[in-house]
Amino acid sequence: GYNNMWHKATYYNMAIAIASTNEYIEVIHRSRVLNYAWIPDATFVQRRLQQVIFPGYSKEQHDQQLYITEFAQVQTEKWAHRDLERSAPSVWGAASNMKITTSMLMALLEHQQNNKLTEREAACYFLRTQRDLW
């Protein structure tokens, strides 16, 4: 992360200061700062972070250790126990057919935070309200 931030800040003339603390979550919540975060993650969902967009990923530049473009996109995969299809075919079918976008997932995380739901409660809420997905 830091290497990429320094490269981008220098190349695009962005004035930044980098700090590290064991209390970074609290610092970010009480300050107006540019922070490094990943999604999906509920930690900062209520802050409604804005993404800083850089030019699309360039493998050639990254291979040269010039990190001035976006990161490469990663494909999220579905994994299940090898016996799930046989043991619970309806669960297998629902999971196999389900397509969830990043914006849907972030909205669910925000709903979870706003309503102080556990992960289980949020998952049940999602399944009850998004039946068309599965």
Fold and architecture overview:
The chain is extended. Helix 6 crosses helix 7. It is built from 7 helices and no strands. It has helices at residues 2-11, 24-30, 59-63, 84-87, 89-97, 102-114, 119-129. The model has no long low-confidence stretch (mean pLDDT 88). The protein is mainly α and 134 residues long. 44% of the residues lie in helices and 0% in strands.
Q: How would the blueprint of this fold be written?
A:
Layout: H1 2-11, H2 24-30, H3 59-63, H4 84-87, H5 89-97, H6 102-114, H7 119-129
User: What letter string, H or E per element, gives the SSE order?
Assistant: HHHHHHH
Question: Structural class, please?
Answer: mainly alpha
What does the radius of gyration come to? 19 Å
Q: What oligomeric assembly is this protein in?
A: single chain
Globular, elongated, flat, extended or rod-shaped: what is the shape?
extended
Helix segment tally: 7
Distance between the termini: 36 Å
The residue fraction in helices comes out at 40-55%
Task: Say how many strands there are.
Answer: 0
* Uncertain stretches of 5 or more adjacent residues: none
Largest sheet: none
Content of β-strand: under 5%
Query: What does the average pLDDT come to?
Result: 88
Please describe the structure with a list of short key phrases separated by commas or semicolons.
mainly alpha, single chain, 134 residues
What would a concise description of this structure say?
The protein has 134 residues and is mainly α.
